[in-house]
Amino acid sequence: MIAKMLIPARVLSALAFAFALLSGCSDHAVTAPAGRVAASRAAAAAAASRPISGRCETVFTQTPLDPTHAHVIVRGTCRLEHLGRSTVFIDQIADFAASTLTGVTIYTAANGDELRSTGSVQILTPPDAAGNSTFAGPHTFTGGSGRFAHARGGYTFTGRANLVTFTGFFEIVGRITFAASDRGGP
């Protein structure tokens, strides 16, 4: 009698184990709460890498620091993807011996959200007879405020400055990752 009871118990245990194993691999297995999965998918989609481009019209001032360096402040208005009509402020140091400009750029959207970047541009041509000089180089997004608080990515910066009128323009083309719903810190 005892032997008959042990066999069904072993079979029952094996069947229970197999059932548990197979149901864990089924499509109907619960592995995470549905809300958490949906939130993770939404966050991934919201923070997807996307293209960014646009153009800024600028004015600038330069203050000599020594014979080969100057402090350059650039201000302007832009039309940029993900910011719309916006303003730009650039604080940079020009190294005329190395033909570079290195600094920080802050784009401000109409709602006040800021997008920051750092980088260097190479002065490609010395000023021509009219005072025009061209430049280009990479920049890296370093965050900002509002929806750009955790922005990452980069862009190529190309443009022209007139050293007689102290005006210029530049265009950007690149990729940016940010969460449109992010309203985090500075």
Give me a quick take on this structure.
This protein has two helices and eight strands.
Outline the secondary-structure elements.
Elements: H1 2-24, H2 34-46, E1 49-66, E2 69-80, E3 84-95, E4 100-109, E5 114-123, E6 132-144, E7 152-162, E8 167-177
Protein described:
- By secondary structure, the chain is an alpha+beta fold.
- The protein has a domain at 48-177: AOC barrel-like (Beta Barrel).
- 19% of the residues lie in helices and 52% in strands.
- It contains two helices and eight strands.
- The protein has helices spanning 2-24, 34-46; strands at 49-66, 69-80, 84-95, 100-109, 114-123, 132-144, 152-162, 167-177.
- An eight-stranded antiparallel barrel has the order 1-2-3-4-5-6-7-8.
- Strand 2 (69-80) and strand 3 (84-95) form a beta hairpin.
- The N and C termini lie far apart (76 Å).
